[in-house]
Design brief:
about 20% strand, alpha/beta, Rossmann fold, about 160 residues
Amino acid sequence: MEDKVLVVYYSRTGNTRRAAEIIAARLGAETEEIIDHRSRDGPIGWLLAGRDGGRKNLTEIEPPRQDPSGYDLVVVGTPVWNDNVSAPVRTYLNGYAAKCGRLAVFITHDAPKTGALADVNSLVQGEPVASVELRRNDEGNAGKLEAFINQLKDL
């Protein structure tokens, strides 16, 4: 892949960060962590995350360091909050999805099935060029992640 790639992610517990780091390393991509101004630590943070996810709330985030319009491919990673995209990623996509040429998405979650990919599609006015859902502690995640990375390399 000769394209300039940016991996943008939000991670409350570290699961999405680990996947983002693997993807970025394999694609030779730059990374951008979305920084939420609201604390999401501990049980109260978990409850607020679930509430904001279920209500599809926006939150205040730090302005991104990188302009996504300067990349050929932007890969966005989000945890699932109450069956939806996390509030920080919702806020990022709300403000910057139009600047992303090609957009791919990876989703991390605990649930057996989520509506988060449909939520992403509604936020970006279409479907990402590639997507993958990674369920925590799923033995198939390594294979899913490998297939996703290979799909991105073939774009």
